[in-house]
Every structure is written in C-alpha cells, then in structure tokens.
Amino acid sequence: MIDYSKKYPKFFFTRDSLIGAAFLILALFAGLLGGAMMLPFIEIRPSSGIVVSHMLLMAFFVITPGILGGMAYWLLPQSLGAQKMALPVASLIAWLLLAISVIILPLVPVWGLILWSISMVALSIDLIATILEERVKKFRQLSPIVWSFLFSAISLLLMAPIILALIVKGKIDFNSAYSLMLFFKIPEMSFLLLPALGVVAEALSPFKENLTTKLAPYVMGIIGLVAPTLWIQTLFCALPHGFLNYIMPLSQIVPAMVFLACLCSSLWNASFKRGAAPFWALNAMILLFLGGMSSLFIPPSYTALSVLGDISHGHQAIIFGSVMALCAGFYAWLSQLFPEMSKSFTQAGIAHAFLTLSAMLCFMVPQIQWLAITLAGISLLGFSILGFQACFIIKKKQIISLQRSFPKG
Prior knowledge:
The structure is a single chain. The chain is an all-alpha fold. The protein is about 75% helix and about 0% strand. It has 13 helices and no strands. α7 runs parallel beside α9 and α9 (about 245-270) runs antiparallel to α10. Residues about 1-15, about 40-50 and about 300-310 have low confidence and may be disordered.
C-alpha cells in the first residue's frame, strides 16, 4: 500500500478525523438553524423559547462543539505530539446527545439543555484525558491552543453539571428571556472566548518562546477557572448587589484583551504567517478586540429585549469573532490536509474571509439586514463547496491507494 504520510498526515484519515468532521457538520447545522430563526420572511413568534434557542445555538451549539469537538480532534493530537485522542467513544456519545439536543432545543429548551450538559461533560472528559495522557511534551512547552482546549474543557466540566442540576431542580425560569440572558451571560462568554483565543493564536503566531506562550496558561486559567468559580459562587451565596456585573469584565474581557495585546506584540517582533487561515484569524482577532473594548466601555443594556435579547454591538462582535476563529481553524485544517493546494486557494480563502467579515458587519446595521443575509448565504455556499471538495479529494486518494495496493493482472 502506498505511503502518503509525507504529503498527507495519517491522522487525517483515521476515525478521529471523522469524529471531528461530524462535530463540525453538526455545528454548521446548528448555525443554519439559529440563523433561520431570525430571517425576516420566516414568521416566528418571539417567545422566550425562541430567544434562548437562538442565543444558545450560537455559543453552546456552534462555537463549543465546532472548536472543542471539530478543531480539537483535528489539531490537538498534532499539537501534543500524540497519535490519537484518548477516549473517542466518549466523544461519539457526546456527538449523539448533541445532535438530539440541537433538534429538540427550539421545541423543548429544557430537554435540549439537559442533553447538551451531559454531552459536554463527556466531551470534556475526552479532551482532558487526551491532554494529560497522550502528550509527549512538557506542560511549559504546550502551545496556547492546547491551554485553551484544556481550560475550555475544565470550565465545561465545572459549569455543565451546575446547569444540569439547576434545570432538573427547576431553578431556571425558562419563561423569562431576561433572566435567561443574565443566567447564561458568564458561561456563554467563557465558551466563546477560550476556544477562539487559542485558535487565533495558533493560526497567527509561529510560537517559539515568546510572551504569548508564557502568558497563555495564566490568561486561559483566569477565564476558564476564576470566572466559572465566581459565577457558581453567585448562584449559591448572597453576594453584594451588582457583583455579577463585574465578573465578566474583570475575569473574562480584561484577560482576553491582555492576551490579544501580547499576541500583537509577538506578531510585531516575529514573521507573520501567510495564507488563508492567518487572514481569517486576523479578522477574528480584530472583531474580538473591538467587541471586548466595546463591552468594557459601553456596558450592555437589557432594558428592551428584542427577539435577540438586545445583544449589544460588543457582544455581537465577540460572537462574530469566535465564528471567524472557527473558520480559521477550518482553513488551517485544509492547508494541512492538502499542502499542495495552489496560490489560487489562498487567494480564494482571503476573498471568502473578506466576504464573511462584510456579512458580519452588515448584521450590526439593521437597515441593511437583507444585504447581510445575502452575503452570509454566499459565504455558507463557499463552505459547502470547500467541504465537498475536501471529501472528494480524500475519497480519490483512498481509491488510488487501494488500486495501487493490488498488483495488476
């Protein structure tokens, strides 16, 4: 049998790569479902179930499984120097529960979140076990994306059981969109920022010994440990009024802004990676930085809830930045899977990123929502074409490999 290991890493053709693709496809479906709820020509009554479904689909069902399920299965073993994930069966169970929860979330948000919580616990256990057991590098040699995966899994392992317990005991009011927004504000921001920062750093920086690599475990630790711990504390202890309003800026936004500033400093003093994935990551970094600064200096208002729950522009920018980071990880995977792709692929990827960024910026202006929907549809079509092309090339290589493995005649 022909050895394609020099041009095509063996990992990309294993069971783990298929699990990662399954998570990414599920995240894409959740994103399409969440976007469909907000289309102007689809008449949906703006109930609390629809509000929470749209809000949670983007953060809990798109970014979290897309990066921690899809990107982690593609990028984590290589970053650790490992050959495989430690507990793939746990992630298969997580995918199955997540698929069911995505379908039933708009209809029955309670059961959708129950299944999501169980699914994320299983996925988190697999990620933590892989990092602790399969790594061949020392902890101080780990890249920022590994730290982001580790602390994302830890934060999920902390918060998902709490969410599950409160839902089962009936402590969450699903009839009030306002209280749901307040309750999920801290978990949502952790699930958005942690994976996005890791993917952006991986796609942009060469990661030799620099300030970003030294700072990564501390920043990720604050966002992934301190913020969830304080959030849990507010649920069970009587704290001063307004304490919750200071948790997100001090334990999530500020550390993220410091990390992005250090990343900019590292890029200034080092060579910049070229390609489609770094361009996507650069756009993601800009959106995350603008969203973080807006959240710090322009506090969000929850006085006039719309169908989207009155999401501020800063919040929207962070969500869009996380989506751009997910797309950067997808393009990084494609460039590793098919290193022979021509310069035209890079140019098309950059144009695709610019088109997607334009759609996201248009979404922030209510007067041109029609243009945003049009551009977003073209962008999703581009992802579909890329996905089918990748599947076709992989299948073609497998057929050629099988044909050459048998002697003629």
